[in-house]
Amino acid sequence: MVNGKRAVERCDFLGIAPYSDTEDGLYRGYLTPAYAASQRVIARWMTEAGMTTRIDAAGNLVGRYEGAGSRPALIIGSHLDSVRDAGRYDGPLGIMLGIECVAVLSAMQERLSFPIEIYAFGDEEGSRFPLAMLTSRAVAGVLECDIEEPVDSAGASLSDALASYGLETQAPVAADVPGLQAARHPGALAYLEAHIEQGPVLESEGLALGNVTGIAAQRRFSAFVSGRAGHAGTTAMMLRRDAFAAAAAMVLAAEECARAEDADRVATVGSIIVGPGAANVVPGAARFTLDVRAATDEACAALADAILAKFGAIAAERSVTLSVDALHHLPASPSDSRLLELMDAAIADEGLPARRLVSGAGHDAMILSALCPTAMLFIRCREGISHNPAESVTAEDCTLAGRVMLRFIKLLEDFHGA
Ligand code: GLV
Ligand code: MN
Ligand code: MN
Hints:
Oligomer: single chain
Number of strands: 16
CATH topology of the largest domain: Aminopeptidase
Radius of gyration: 22 Å
Largest sheet: 9 strands, mixed
Number of domains: 2
Bound molecules: glyoxylic acid, manganese (II) ion
CATH architecture of the largest domain: 3-Layer(aba) Sandwich
Distance between the termini: 31 Å
Number of helices: 11
Order of helices and strands: HHEEEHEHHEHEEEHEEEEHEEHEHEH
């Protein structure tokens, strides 16, 4: 019997120090002390559920439950890292439900024709380094990115972080992020991720679970505005080249562009750093992030282009210089059509309606789709709240999710991949 209550309790257990890097609220960064402490506990839970465990070259924790045949592995996963002041279920719940499924199979001494590997991915959120989904990109073999060596806010490079975590780094290869290539997976049967919905649809329709048809496209940028710092008391307004005021106009322009589009197109400036950062100095520099999403690649590109054109116009008007780096471009990722049907069947076999829906949030599944066919199961969360400590799920919904996952896993006996 799948134990959804235990899955929820384990996420709660991991929600505070030492499994959080902060004493107040939850923040678990990639390769931090809280990350290491969490991996140690989860590895124990994996072992108790009948798995062997290892940490791969990207710092992902992997639990493996052997199969009886020679087919490639089914990967079940989600992420262990979190945003700052996070909820407890965004990420870890998918890992815990994977462990629950294996615990049931192992208790029944049931071996499938394929092994199951549970991945606790390291960096989905991008909350430590200015890149997201690094470790699932390493597993899927799609590490190419524009930044050669990401550095965190404390000045530690990714190579430093990997080395101090005891992971070997390699020389940079072409545009690849160094050190992570060895985590590449040899090829999987399928990827399954269970995740809280992070939106209100399921709750508003009175449904516990949803079958994810695909994940919206994402583009993320880092913008740097350079003006001229000056004395706040003596620099006349007309003479100012205030980088922060220009960035503020850009933030509002991004919002206006996205509002002019369909509801499924969104743009967010979620972080800004202003320099030099004193009450009596006109700001000379501002660095901010821009995150743009839409259901299709074309719509996402069009919105990003429109916003960046506005930024350029604002910079010219205010006599500041603007430079923009692309941090990532993740194409929209449809779920595998055959796996969608298997998931519909697994949900129906639990006596539930098979509601299909799109994910506006990004997930490791959108990266794993480069490696193998992918499927996702959404779980209702209270008021659709996420990226917020008020995130909440019920044990009953999680038990149902685990039961559906087990049914789906068994249906894969007759599934023959890409
Ligand atoms: C992940 O939570 C994302 O959608 O940014
Ligand atoms: Mn997530
Ligand atoms: Mn998240």
